[in-house]
Amino acid sequence: MSGLLDLVHPLPLDQGSARDLSARLADTLAVPPPHPDLAGIDPDSPRWDGQSLSCGHPGIAILHGTRARDNVSPWSRAAAWFAAATKEPLAAAGGAGLWHGAPALGFALHAAALPEHAAHLLKQLDHVVTEMVQRQLGDAAKRMAASLRPVPGEFDLVRGLTGLGAYLLARDPSYPALRDVLACLVRLTVPIPAADAAGTEVPGWWTLHMPVGKPVELFADGYSDQGMAHGISGPLALLSLAYRARVIVPGQAEAIATITSWLDRVQQVDEAGPWWPERLTLTDLRTQRSHQDGPARPSWCYGTPGIARALQLAALAQGDSRRQRHAEHALLACVTDHHQLDRLADLTLCHGWSGLITTVWTATTDSLSPMLGLQLSALITAAGNRSLPVPERPGLIDGTAGLALTQHSIATGRLGPWTNCLLLTGTEPT
């Protein structure tokens, strides 16, 4: 990665320049590094980074596979990165989920469309993911029966059932395990008679899991996370995408309505337009005021863009044009507010400009108004007018591969199935 920071200042503003940048970034990731000789089985060991969509090899295989499918890169690069990702035993427990371990490798193989690996190995990985789903469903059922609060990793996109459901929806919507996941997420929306201060006053996804770096006293009674990555917007997006794909279980429409009504309830409005607190505490709920003093950065993972896209998908599933217009208005207000845009400090998919552009792009494909499409061009220009460093990490979600894929999409004028791992799309996007 040495010298990579000098590649882009600023980002390109046209398709030709985007094509060149994507190629140059992909070239810096042409060959995987030597396999590290690391001892131990610590789940936090860097030996497992190779199985991470966020910062490791699977996301880079997706980059090269996407470019190979468009005939601008050799398939050998994607194959080399995928082979490097499989040097360690598959992670299928603990912190494994859509973004890490066996599901990440299966998703990469699917999205990269590697011809020589696909059929046999994908079938094996699908089996591993299905077994993971059944284990996690069993754990969730025990937790619900005991009237205990969930941890985000039970249901979220990154490690939980929502992410595994996203994998199954992308792979094959007819998988029975997908319906099991949807049924569990429907149950997640039912309040739990927990023996704590919140009781049934709060929704079923209310968690007591302490967020890193936050004041203990503020979150002592738990909170609702609204974000796409770790919060309730992820389940909302999956339930809605599955509904649109005609994968429907009892109570699914009601669950979509429940989450949508909650997001209506906790929505804040100021001069910048509608926004949602990243986390809402019991005090916030009872006082009807957020401890957060304004909208956070307009990121995919926690900000208004991801939440607005989830609400747009819900409205599309419900056939509710009024709610759809409201969601699109919230997104448009966010991305035309320069104070919010100025909070984006990097180029990644998760937290930065690539994620914002990709989120708005997918919303534009379903939008009732041409305004979002016009704003997409303005956002690409705005990103190009900022001198921001290339991500130091190499991966998809938090790294260079995500930036390169976004630039490749701008160059070709189309997205790819990699957007499914952000739950911006559920099958092949347009």
Would you give an account of this structure?
With 430 residues, the chain is mainly α. It has 17 helices and four strands. Strand 2 and strand 3 form a beta hairpin. Helix 2 packs parallel to helix 17. This is Lanthionine synthetase C family protein. Pfam families: LANC_like.
In short:
The chain is mainly alpha-helical and 430 residues long. Helices cover 50% and strands 3% of the residues. The strands form two sheets. A two-stranded antiparallel ribbon has the order 1-4. A two-stranded antiparallel ribbon has the order 2-3.
Layout of secondary structure:
Blueprint: H1 15-28, H2 57-69, H3 75-85, H4 102-112, H5 118-145, H6 152-155, H7 161-171, H8 176-188, E1 223-225, H9 233-244, H10 252-266, E2 268-270, E3 273-275, E4 279-281, H11 282-287, H12 304-318, H13 321-335, H14 338-341, H15 353-366, H16 371-384, H17 400-412
Antiparallel strand pairs: 1-4, 2-3
Pfam family, one: LANC_like
InterPro entries: LanC, LANC-like
Protein name: Lanthionine synthetase C family protein
